[in-house]
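Duplicate of #3305? Posting structure anyway:
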């Protein structure tokens, strides 16, 4: 559990999933699991535009594939346009895995053929967006892209980052930098969660 986190973590949209494995094994009586942005932060160990982008792209993809249903965890495959070790793809893939359960060959192999999570994740796939989600029950797909470059970078973040990186910032400067950094994440998660110019869906 994260302590003393920014208030906006609790204001970010939640993602509700149905996980048949959780119900079968008694982890959840009805099988429903609700994911919050702070869960992704706890997984990554930090909050940044990359983590927020992965969270929002997953939300957008699932909302499109399941417009009138609760998305099924383990019920989608995920494909990334870039290789796992390219840029921040690996970091984003971990966030998507947390929510969807869709893993590579190392994922859960299921119980008697049910509840499988493995072999549902691929990288380096030629697609239009950053990531592609495919429902396994009807083969419907959606691609999602993100453009965080449209979110302005606070001046304090630009000016203080070199000092913080060099380890010469004061405690107050470090705090100011952190607040400025999180203000950009907040703008993405709260103000632009449904902004098609930031999170673009190719259905």
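Output from current build:
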């Amino acid at each position: 559990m994260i302590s003393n986190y920014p208030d906006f973590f609790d204001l970010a949209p939640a993602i509700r999933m149905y996980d048949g494995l959780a119900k079968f094994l008694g982890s959840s009586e009805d099988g429903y699991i609700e994911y919050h942005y702070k869960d992704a932060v706890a997984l990554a160990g930090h909050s940044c535009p990359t983590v927020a982008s992965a969270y929002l792209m997953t939300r957008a993809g699932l909302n499109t594939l399941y417009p009138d249903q609760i998305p099924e965890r383990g019920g989608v495959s995920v494909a990334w346009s870039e290789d796992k070790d390219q840029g921040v793809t690996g970091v984003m893939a971990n966030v998507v895995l947390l929510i969807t359960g869709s893993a590579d060959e190392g994922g859960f192999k299921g119980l008697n053929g049910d509840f499988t999570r493995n072999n549902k994740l691929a990288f380096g796939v030629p697609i239009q967006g950053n990531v592609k989600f495919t429902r396994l029950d009807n083969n419907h797909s959606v691609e999602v892209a993100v453009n965080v470059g449209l979110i302005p970078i606070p001046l304090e973040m630009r000016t203080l980052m070199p000092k913080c990186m060099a380890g010469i910032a004061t405690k107050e400067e470090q705090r100011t930098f952190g607040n400025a950094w999180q203000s950009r994440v907040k703008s993405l998660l709260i103000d632009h969660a449904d902004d098609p110019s930031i999170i673009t869906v190719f259905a």
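Confirmed duplicate; merging threads. DSSP finds six helices and seven strands in the chain. Strands lie at 15-18, 32-35, 76-80, 121-122, 131-135, 141-146, 199-202.
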